[in-house]
Amino acid sequence: MEKNTLGEPRLSRSVLLWPTSEQCVIMIQVREAVYIADYAILEGVRANATDPNTQQYLSAPFCLLYKNSQNEIMPIAIQLSRQTPSGEANTVFLPSDDRYDWMLAKMWVKSSDFNVHQLVTHLLRTHLTSEVFAIAMYRQLAAVHPVYKLLIPHVRFTIAINTAAREKLICEDGIFDKANATGGTAIVEVIQKAMKTLTYKSLCFPEAMKA
Ligand SMILES: [Fe+2]
User: Fold this and answer.
1) What pTM was computed for the model?
2) How many Å apart are CA 73 and CA 67, to the nearest integer?
3) Number of domains forming the structure of the chain
């Protein structure tokens, strides 16, 4: 791969990023020091339209990142949409583009990352998943059971905080509906998609990255 004077990969606009999979995999190492962050899970998700006066938008971008000699992971190319047959919607944005074009492309990626992080990484993979174990524990294990004693410090407040989340954050007219592009029907859409690829291994960080 051609590099610039800072040792970073130099990409030409003709480089087309590619869709990887339907999986809910965010970061994949594609070669040494080069990673792809893929937000395919947002493809086709209907953006929040609960407030007719505030149209919201979603994209399903992918972003190439490079780990430089200072150990910083820097974006080096961004495509905001999936490949289409005509290729017209496949503009690849580069750091060498107009400053504000590149800034906006990065903002779209950050927005997508925020939505996936909050719904999948945070809500589903921490709060909702642990609630399943908490409920099973309360129903099936006596308080003197050793496994109960091992689990209780981890799930002591899970049901309480999840109840609050259902009442204030993800409910109809809640914070998600008011503030996030994944409010409204998108909450369920994204979580259902993420559940399809949820495995024990996908919860473990090293295995969650595809080498
Ligand atoms: Fe939380």
Assistant:
1) 0.82
2) 4
3) 1
